[in-house]
Design brief:
Chain lengths: 481, 438, 248
């Protein structure tokens, strides 16, 4: 008859990871371990200039002296950094001139991911860069973009073809010694995306990167750098998946955004790394550093839908350096089974009249732990800074946890900061009401969760919103029609 | 010699002054070890991120006052609720003052910790309650326990309603150049009993004094405890207040903290709700200027179902003062049907003033209603202008706005005479005479 | 259509229904009246299949099928509609999205394809005008911040959209002013047909002036104590429920 907690729990457990396939592709993978030699080899493999090698080595030296952070509200056995291979690439030609040259197996992978490149091309509107096991394998729409002067390529290509731009900005938002994982990334990153929007250009389509970890025993360390020159605009999307494996895989990415005067960057992520099985075995450790710097009158908006990974440690942040700049953070973090997420944002108000908005929706189910951690900092010179934060948590079942750790530091008397947080559960009355209208409990939960997350889903570009909505449903249930 | 070393070394001297056969000496020694291991907290500790004790513990302090001091009642009368009859436990430089005190054993015990520790008839109570709900990892609490000897001891037996409020007052006279005090209070309120308590630390002249106080409060089933802390000390006095409260079924405990003075004040206020249907109230008004620093660190541990907690802290900060609020609500997996609310509102009046606030929720049960909100803002300039256009001078207008801002907390003071007194203190602090009672 | 025999039910171990009998045929309107706490709303929840209510004795047949075996959503798919006394809020889910999900869930259960967007839109327009519902209303979050009248109107709008066989209107008149009551009653009357049936649960006779019942049943202490025609409702209004209490 009715729908009990027990049934709910059972249903939540039977959720399967849809993207857990592994693609048979001939790969070139470095032996495990990390030392100066490996750093040099990666750099050499990428045909990098000397300054880049030096930069990496400096990062490696810094990393060696650092300790893995423990302050986050997550528990995991620390990875053995000497048991990871730091480079794995699909073994084929170095460059693809067109999609026809790409390994058909790889293309099939993308089909399975639901991102058929053909389709994407037809849809017109999304230019795609795909990073598989740390190496960029395909970038679409390059020519269309080139007409506008937009550079959208892999970061390895950018280091070779646009060294001045890379050299000028890389590591400026997130210094190499910023934190343990950022330093590691700087030393060993093997690829990632690069994007430059010239002055006054409004990027005509969504730029998109798909990341996938394929090979076993590898870590993925991609690095993304987005530069929006004065008065330009870009919307950037990022998606991630990984095969189901018993072991924990490490993903330590770095994303740097630079919004120069009057520019706007919208950065959206749908993160669906393998979360581990229902017993908490396997899954990706997602330790990511994302930060953007806003110059005068500029705006950076982070939107994230986090449903994957066994452990997430991620705080997309905005340094509001320029006067009148705006930072936004919209987040949905859903954890199920044994997943742990410690995620949130930092809004650092340095300039005058800077504004920030934080909307965070946490959904915890199963035995998962979901934490929001945020910092709003108003510096003495940041006159008229404004912040509004809203953090809501939804709990499903009584074996999970929802936590909120907001830090607010105000050093200017004109600051106006408001923070609100609520915690609630899905009401049995809501489920019954839906049931009475013919909607089954599974769908009813999806409906309530989608409603709960709507403020954030609305911030995603259309193509992503639909996918994200589906992902939320899949992450909570077996499958929903 | 570092002050930490001095504290460790002086324990031998302390032992010579006390009865080593009392019930708690073993606990003292263990606690001294804990303090030795942990030392003073530093800003590296997450709990002390915004408050540094470095400058404080670099100084040297006298631990035992050399001479006993008496004070004339008329000089300190204003610090008491003299308008009404109260029980009083008064200490001068850490030493009990029988002259200023008014204790009782008539139907309830309001007396000295040292007496309770030495007399056999209190032994079982001390065994049951002393040092039982404190945080064993907390180094400052351990330090206090290591030197625990004097303070207030209050026991309200079953179904007894204490008819007079109890005032616990610590004076420091400035006879010592710098003094380190460590009072220890134990308050046990048995089933269905009720009590109102007022606690105050007051220096009588400008001199360096640090008080590291620990208070344990046990509220049994259906008990009611109404506790007020008045912190309006001189700008040379610092206070670390560690209060631990344990609540049983259907008990109701309210703690109001008014932080208006002092140099550095840290309030560690811990509630543990062990029975169903408990009510807990934590409220505070903080009004600071100059280089004053107040850090409210609260923890409400919902360990049982169907309890309700309310926190409401208001802060107004000017002239380089610094306010910290760190409030944590922890809801245990068992604690279904919990209602927990937390509110922290702050007004910054000056560019040199700082507010750091960190309200936290840690929730492990799903059928709960928890919320927190915090704001940092300014006085409403439009409202100020409105009042001034009606002829109210700026200072008075600001004072009115401050009252309005803090009103929720002031209104919930249940002792009328105390409410009046606090209103006066606030008016004085704001430098206004409003000519009417608020 | 709906046959209820000697129905007993309890909630959290407390016996609420102690023998309800009801026989509703297609085309009929039945009114169920009774004082507060007599079990009226419990009956509607039991028919809809609320998990908190346990049927301890008796049975309910809907079109010959035993209801006890069916989940709430299956009952809805078969054509049972309950207009809630207190409609539930679902933040972030618009009225339109909700009704779309609801209709397609029922269609899916019947092995039908989703309703096309055009048809859905047409239907929404038609039914919302029937209940004088503004199109802006349709994009608001379901019941969130709705006034009492809006909530009830929204319930009847969903009823119109779902075209149920049996509609149970639980205290639909409570919280409505006279104008809203007329709109709602008018909507209900337009939905009446020879194929469907309606059960109106109410405390007062007022609603029955607008939705005229064929039969009136009085429930007291969880039992059907008196049945009659619409005159019974008028008699009740005049004599009050004490009259029934004395009779029992």
């Amino acid at each position: 008859m009715g729908y009990t907690e027990e049934e709910l729990k059972k249903e939540l457990e039977t959720k399967e990871y849809e993207y857990g396939f592994y693609t048979e592709i001939d790969s070139e993978t470095f032996p495990v371990g990390l030392n100066e030699e490996v750093v040099r080899r990666i750099s050499k493999k990428k045909k990098e200039p000397e300054w880049m090698i030096q930069w990496r080595l400096k990062a490696y030296e810094a990393w060696k002296k650092m300790e893995e952070p423990e302050w986050a509200n997550v528990q995991y056995s620390k990875p053995d950094y000497q048991a990871i291979s730091y480079y794995s690439a699909p073994k084929k030609k170095d460059q693809y001139k067109s999609l026809d040259e790409v390994d058909p197996e790889l293309l099939k992978t993308f089909d399975k991911l639901g991102i058929s490149i053909d389709e994407q091309k037809k849809l017109a509107g999304v230019a795609l860069d795909i990073v598989m096991d740390s190496v960029s394998v395909a970038t679409t729409f390059k020519e269309t973009l080139a007409e506008k002067g937009i550079i959208f390529c892999s970061i390895s290509e950018a280091i070779q073809k646009h060294p001045d731009l890379v050299k000028k900005y890389i590591g400026t938002v997130i210094p190499i010694q910023d934190n343990y994982f950022a330093a590691l990334n700087a030393a060993v990153f093997s690829d990632g995306s690069f994007c430059y929007i010239p002055k006054g250009v409004r990027c005509p389509m969504e730029l998109s990167t798909y990341f996938r970890i394929n090979q076993a025993g590898t870590g993925q360390f991609e690095r993304t750098l987005v530069i929006a020159d004065k008065s330009s605009y870009v919307s950037y999307l990022e998606g991630c998946t990984a095969p189901s494996r018993d072991e924990n895989q490490l993903h330590a990415a770095v994303v740097e955004l630079v919004a120069l005067d009057d520019a706007e960057i919208k950065y959206s992520t749908v993160q669906n790394w393998f979360p581990g099985d229902k017993n908490g075995k396997g899954g990706v450790y997602n330790f990511v550093t994302k930060r953007g710097i806003c110059h005068k009158n500029s705006k950076i908006s982070w939107t994230q839908v986090e449903t994957g990974s066994a452990v997430t440690w991620k705080y997309p942040s905005c340094i509001l350096k320029g006067d009148n700049s705006i930072g936004e953070f919209y987040s949905i973090a859903l954890t199920n089974n044994y997943q742990q997420a410690d995620t949130g944002t930092k809004m650092v108000h340095l300039g005058k009249n800077t504004k920030s908005t934080i909307i965070s929706k946490g959904i915890s189910a199963g035995k998962s732990q979901n934490s929001y951690r945020g910092l709003v900092q108003v510096h003495p010179r940041a006159i008229n800074a404004r912040n509004f934060s809203q953090c809501d948590s939804l709990l499903m079942g009584n074996q999970c946890g929802a936590h909120t750790f907001p830090y607010i530091e105000a050093k200017n008397k004109t600051a106006q900061i408001e923070h609100e947080a609520t915690t609630s559960k899905i009401g049995e009355d809501q489920i019954f009401y839906c049931n009475q209208r013919g909607i089954d409990p599974e769908k009813a939960i999806a409906l309530v969760v989608n409603g709960f997350s709507k403020e954030v889903l609305n911030k995603l570009p259309m193509e992503f919103a639909v996918e994200a909505q589906k992902l939320l449903e899949i992450s909570l249930e077996g499958s929903v029609g | 010699m570092e002050f930490k070393e001095k504290l460790l070394d002086s324990h031998l001297a302390f032992e010579e002054r006390i009865d080593l056969s009392d019930a708690i000496h073993q606990t003292r020694l263990e606690s001294l070890k804990t303090f030795e291991q942990k030392g003073f907290p530093s800003r590296k500790d997450e709990a002390w991120k915004y408050t540094s004790l470095n400058a404080m513990v670099l100084k040297d302090y006298a631990l035992f006052p050399q001479t006993e001091t008496t004070i004339q009642l008329k000089k300190v009368k204003k610090y008491f609720l003299y308008e009404i009859d109260t029980y009083k436990v008064v200490f001068i430089d850490g030493v009990y003052s029988p002259f200023l005190s008014d204790t009782t054993h008539d139907g309830l015990d309001v007396c000295l910790m040292s007496a309770a520790l030495s007399k056999a008839k209190y032994r079982s109570l001390i065994d049951t309650y002393f040092n039982k709900i404190i945080n064993k990892e907390d180094s400052l609490t351990a330090l206090n326990t290591a030197y625990a000897q004097e303070g207030a001891y209050v026991y309200i037996p079953k179904s007894v309603v204490a008819e007079k409020p109890i005032e616990i007052i610590h004076f420091s006279t400035g006879k010592e150049k710098a003094l380190w005090l460590q009072p220890r209070n134990l308050i046990v309120v048995d089933q269905n009993a009720q009590v109102q308590i007022l606690e105050r630390h007051q220096s009588l002249k400008e001199h360096v004094v640090v008080t590291n106080s620990v208070t344990e409060i046990y509220a049994h089933q259906d008990a009611f405890v109404d506790y007020y802390k008045i912190q309006n000390d001189l700008s040379t006095a610092s206070l670390i207040d560690n209060t631990y409260i344990s609540q049983e079924k259907k008990s109701n405990v309210r703690v109001h903290t008014f932080s208006l003075g002092g140099k550095l004040t840290r309030n560690n206020l811990n509630f543990c709700l062990n029975g169903q249907h408990c009510h807990s109230t934590l409220k505070g008004v903080t009004l600071l200027e100059d280089q004053q620093h107040v850090d409210h660190y609260t923890l409400v541990d919902h360990a049982s179902p169907k309890c309700e907690s309310h926190q409401d802290y208001k802060g107004v900060f000017s002239e380089g003062s610094k306010g910290v609020f760190n409030g944590k609500i922890h809801v245990d997996q068992l604690a279904q049907k919990t209602n927990a609310f937390q509110q922290n509102n702050n007004i910054l009046l000056d560019d040199k003033a700082t507010v750091n606030t960190k309200p936290q929720l840690e929730i492990f049960a799903d059928d709960v209603k928890c919320s927190h909100g915090c704001t940092v803002g300014q006085m409403d300039e439009d409202a100020l202008f409105y009042m001034r256009s009606r002829g109210i001078p700026k200072k008075e207008a600001k004072a009115l706005m401050t009252y309005a801002f803090a009103n929720n907390v002031l209104e919930s003071v249940e002792l009328p005479i105390l409410k009046k007194r606090i209103n006066k203190l606030i008016a004085k602090k704001l430098g206004v005479n409003l000519g009417f009672d608020l | 259509m709906l046959t209820i025999e000697n129905l007993h039910a309890q909630v959290e171990g407390k016996q609420i229904l102690n023998g309800i009998d009801l026989d509703v045929k297609a085309g009929e309107v039945h009114a169920i009246m009774g004082p507060n706490g007599s079990g009226k709303s419990t009956l509607s929840s039991v028919i809809a299949g609320h998990q908190d209510y346990e049927v301890t004795k008796g049975n309910m047949l809907f079109q010959g099928e035993d209801l006890a075996k069916l989940s709430p959503e299956e009952r809805a798919h078969k054509g049972i509609f309950l207009s809630f006394q207190y409609p539930v809020e679902i933040p972030g889910v618009s009225v339109t999205n909700f009704i779309k999900t609801s209709i397609n869930a029922s269609r899916k259960a019947k092995g039908m394809e989703d309703m096309t967007a055009n048809l859905m839109l047409k239907k929404i327009r038609e039914k919302s005008s029937l209940l004088e519902i503004d199109s802006r209303f349709l994009s608001r979050s379901l019941n969130e911040g709705f006034s009492g009248g809006e909530k009830k109107r929204n319930e009847i709008f969903q009823m119109a959209m779902l075209e149920p066989k049996l509609s149970i209107l639980d205290e639909t008149d409570s919280g409505l002013d006279i104008d809203a009551l007329k709109i709602v009653a008018n909507g209900v009357n337009k939905l009446r047909s020879n194929d469907n049936a309606i059960i109106v649960i109410t405390h007062y006779q007022r609603l029955l002036e607008y939705i005229v019942p064929d039969f009136v049943h009085v429930i007291f202490d969880g039992k059907t104590v008196k049945s009659g025609t619409k005159d019974l409702a008028i008699e009740l209004e005049e004599k009050g429920y004490d009259w029934i209490k004395e009779m029992v």
